Amino acid sequence: MELTRTFSISTQVVARELGGETVILDLASGAYFGLDTIGAQVWRLLDAGKPLSEICDAIFDEYEVAREELERDVLALVHDLEDRKLIL
Amino acid sequence: MSVVFDEHRAYLTDPIRLARFKAAIEKVLKPGDVVADLGCGFGVLGLLCLQAGAARVYGVDSTRALEVARETFRRAGLDDRYICLSGLTSQIELPERVDLAICDHIGCFGFDYGVTELLSEARARFLKPNGRVIPSRLTLYIAALQSPHCREKLAAWDGPASLGEYRWLREYETNTKHLVTLKADDVVSAPVALGSIDLGAEVREVFSYSARLAIARDALIDGLGGWFDCELADGVSMTNSPLAQDAILREQAFLPIDAPLMVREGEALLVTIMARPAESIVVWTLDAPASGRRFAHSTWKAMILSKDELRHTKGDAPARLTRVGRAQRTVLDLCDDARSVGEIEAAVLRDHPGLFPTRQAISRFVLATLRRNTE
Q1: CA–CA–CA angle A35, A41, A47 (5° rounding)
Q2: Which tens digit of pLDDT belongs to each residue from B18-45?
Q3: Residue-wise pLDDT tens digits, B109-138
Q4: What count of CB pairs under 8 Å joins A to B?
Q5: B313 → closest Cβ in A19, A21, A31
Q6: Residue B270 Cα to chain centre, angstroms
Q7: Do the chains contact at B281 and A25, CB–CB below 8 Å?
Q8: Phi/psi at B94 (nearest 5 deg)?
Q9: Among A12, A47, A87, B108, which is least packed, fewest CB within 10 Å?
Q10: Chain B: nearest CA to A59, how far in angstroms?
Q11: How far apart are the C-alpha atoms of B100 and B331, rounded to whole Å?
């Protein structure tokens, strides 16, 4: 997956805050998923139309993580969200 | 208990509703038909069916209201023809397939009280292949609202009497589908039909609609109003529209926006509505192109959830019974057609010391568990 890609949030998805975390509901299946702090930030930036490279930049600036590991984790999360058809 | 009586008193004393159902039953029911009265409550629709010539009616309800139906039909000498079955339509077993399924779980916005799921389950599980349903079709309507009464609901969390620590709950209010009694004056756009649902066909789990509302006069709108027009039978319908002279006594839905919006006569608003009725989830958006404003709300955002519930959605998280869950397992494991209730209570006392404060509390717990899970 290229880091230049941008995504849009499916119209069938609704997000909310719960106890400081982000929870997303897939209307099509009725299932809901919790995102941790970094996952929630990825979600917000995806919703803002940012490409994956900028999302990784933003998280890299905020957290002390190795860039390669960060990109791997972000891509894994985005793959998962795309597989579940939560992002397009 | 007064909540139950208030609800059912309204059903029994609404002359228009009763007349419409009576007319529909006379059109659809054939003498000798066997009927399922789903979510029957006090059983009035089933009674109308018996009066119209049904051979027998199975009244299905999972609440205590069923006991009022049971006693009513016993006193009327009709308990051999009105058979009460406690449980959910999705789980109950009927001794035979039925000719007609009847139900008034229509709610205030049509799909919000279970009618689509109940009739869908009846079709799948116990309606004869050429069986009929009442109602047969729902049409949902939406309009823009200006309502001081509705605005007050949202403002309650902003007022000086409100403790500041709770002001965040205004977000819950603006993401709640409220039940309100609207006046014709509250409606500031021509109502638009969102879509129709054929209740005799297989019903989907998710509904998705869009509409364009034309504002009829300058107004400060507070949100959207939703209601239904319901076809009970060919040529027989009932509505809870605030604009109808012959509406039944039922509230409408108010879907708020988080701040009042000034609109002008002739302006267009673009609305989307999505819903998963089985989970009571409604999502609504409102776009005002003239002002560039956009509002997006969902009852999902107002559902009171805990992080524990989130844990269960993770596929790899182990499931763990609570202390009460373990006590319930004890009760159910001992239901072997041999042990008495007293013996089961003694086992709960022995195996779960300290869980209940008194012997009476144990007794109530055991009886409640048995009531929900045994015949």
Answers
A1: 100
A2: 999 999 999 999 999 999 999 999 999 9
A3: 998 898 998 998 899 899 999 999 999 999
A4: 42
A5: A31
A6: 27
A7: yes
A8: -95, 145
A9: A47
A10: 24
A11: 38
Place of tokens 């010539």: B53
Smallest CA-to-CA distance from B54 within B73, B72, B36 is with B36
Q: Tokens 């002002």 correspond to what residue?
A: B291
Cα B11 from Cα B248, distance rounded (Å): 10
**Is 0.80 topped by the overall pTM?**
yes
How do residues A20-72 score in pLDDT, each as one tens digit? 788 999 998 888 888 888 899 999 999 999 999 999 999 988 887 888 889 99
Q: Report CA dihedral (B366, B370, B373, B375) to the nearest 10 degrees.
A: 170
State whether B281 and A16 contact (CB < 8 Å): no
Backbone angles phi, psi at B370, to 5 degrees: -65, -40
Give the residue from chain B lying closest to A11, CA to CA. Answer: B274
Q: In what order do the strands lie in the sheet with B56-61?
A: B82-86, B56-61, B34-38, B98-103, B127-134
List CB contacts (< 8 A) between B310 and chain A.
18, 21, 23, 32, 34
Q: What ipTM was reported for this prediction?
A: 0.85
Contact call for A14 and B301, based on CB within 8 A: yes
The C-alpha of A85 sits at a distance from chain B's nearest C-alpha, in angstroms, of 16
Nearest-angstrom CA–CA distance, B142 and B144: 7
Contact predicate B203/B119, CB 8 Å = yes
| A16 contacts on B by Cβ (under 8 Å) | 298, 300-301
Q: Are B245 and B284 in contact (CB under 8 A)?
A: no
Interface residues on B facing A, Cβ-Cβ cutoff 8 A: 205-206, 272, 274, 276, 278-279, 281, 283, 298, 300-301, 305, 307, 310, 313-314
Backbone angles phi and psi of B287, in degrees to 5: -115, 130
Mark yes or no for CB contact B301/A16 under 8 Å: yes
Residue located via tokens 């107004």: B219
How many angstroms from the chain centroid is the CA of residue B264? 35
B8-12 long-range contacts (CB < 8 A, ≥24 apart) are B8/B41, B8/B42, B8/B65, B8/B68, B10/B249, B10/B250, B11/B41, B11/B42, B11/B44, B11/B104, B12/B42, B12/B44
Phi, psi of A84 (to 5 degrees): -85, 0
With tokens 């992002």, the residue in question is A87
B228 has which bridge partners? B140
* Cβ proximity of B100 and B33 under 8 Å: yes
The DSSP secondary structure of B97-145, one letter per residue, reads: -EEEEEE---TTTSSTTSHHHHHHHHHHHTEEEEEEEES-EEEEEEEEE
